[in-house]
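Many introductory courses stop at the sequence. We go one step further.
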Amino acid sequence: MHAYRSHTCADLRKSHVGETVRLAGWVHRIRDHGGVLFIDLRDHYGVTQVLCDSDSPVFDAVEGLRAEYCVRIDGVVKARDESLVNPKLPTGEIEVYIRDMEVLGAAAELPLQVFGDQEYPEETRLRYRYLDLRREAMQRNMVLRSDVVASIRRRMWERGFREFQTPIITASSPEGARDFLVPSRLHPGKFYALPQAPQQFKQLIMVSGFDRYFQIAPCFRDEDPRADRSPTDFYQLDMEMSFVEQQDVFDTVAPVIAGVFEEFGQGVRVDAPETWPQIPYAEALLKYGTDKPDLRNPIEMQDVSDHFRGSGFAIFARLLEQEGTQIRAIPAPRGGSRKFCDRMNAFAQKEGLPGMGYIFWREAEGAMEAAGPLARNIGPERTEAIRQQLGLGVGDAAFFLGGKPQAFERVAAKARVTIGEELGLTEQDRFAFAWIVDFPMYEKDAESGRVDFSHNPFSMPQGGRAALDGNPLEVLGYQYDLACNGYELVSGAIRNHRPEIMFKAFELAGYGEEEVRKRFGGMVGAFQFGAPPHGGCAAGIDRIVMLLAGTSNIREVIMFPMNQRAEDLMMNAPSDPTPEQLMELGLRIVPRD
């Protein structure tokens, strides 16, 4: 017999009754029934009930076991009485009577329980992640992640892609986030960087004549943490294709993403790829207040500025006299009660706004009546025009935000989500996808007035070189994102493979040709030797698994994540370097004032 086990804790069935078996695993739970000890023995695969009574030669040793001891047991498989069968377990028809037992690893007092579903502070869970990972939900999440990655790889190979690995130590590159720098021992005073993404390398793979590339790529960005983003590193499905246009990329990656969600979505409806809408970036901000809309929510915001110009509501009327301002309405079907309107007004105040104007429509003396402070100020004619534009009726409401859109869109987006959820308008059992297209190439910093890239600097501008001769803020790029249920899952672009267009594009963002050659010399040089048109995208593995696992916290689907402060409490990282390490690298720590 094998030194540790003849079967896993998920293998045994009624057909094994009478056999002598060997199992190994962890003591999940112990129950003492008056001289008979019942133990749920757990391994990665499942749970088997084992028992021991005073006739067993190892009864005293078994009596000394505690939760999470790692043990090996030898025993005889017995059938449970019909009344004691556990239909929830695959092994629920049998139990194993212990004849011999060996403790393989004793367990100290536990800082968190593996059995049960108790809640523990995240700091405790991350400090003792090896215990947290033993819990059933975490085991399930990590298996899901592994299976999703395997499925993605298979689907990419089936579509003619080959997997190539790109460097982990490389040069610093402006990709929209801070680099993690790595000091060079052999070149004192110089630094490598961990790649924010394999962006330049995958483009160079296309220039090298490989037609379809992908990899499950680790990416490193020194970012502020969020619930849906790791603050240090993450993994993405990175892909690139030659001789393609934007639609070719969509047609290639959409079936891969949809197939994964269909395979692991546990019956939740997945919109068919051919139905995924393509929404221009500006339209997405207008209707949803965000470039990653949750389309399970049917609410679409509308511009109602004309109804408030010169109206009796002085706050909005004066706002609209300023350049670049707008009044937007958020329809709220079935939200037509003063109680709900007051609740949403309080929501806006918690978000830092003075409040949120509203109108609701109710029945009064057999007729429809508009109610609320806004209705009284702007009068029945304007109120009725707003109702008709929004398609609302009795029992409905509308909420209003005004000013420069960039100042209120974040709150408007959150309000739309809250209204949809509280009024039961948002579908729960659906994965709703949308391509967001026509991103602006550039944006202006509100404080400095400097023009810089708004997204990927390596994208081809729509209209090519000629598009760069006008107002940079009007230039659109062949850039695109894929949104699902309020999250950005995929981001990509058709690449700028023409050096003369690249130099002009960077010039508009304040980077001269010399600096471009210095920063991106490898890619600029390669583009001078017959670069093919190419494009691609990257899909966030962590976010895909997060959605499939039904959680909104990305740390629930990462094996060993950092905490919110980008600390690894288990491995004590980041840590202080030794004086010897600093000396070898030619570095010293300068305290911050």
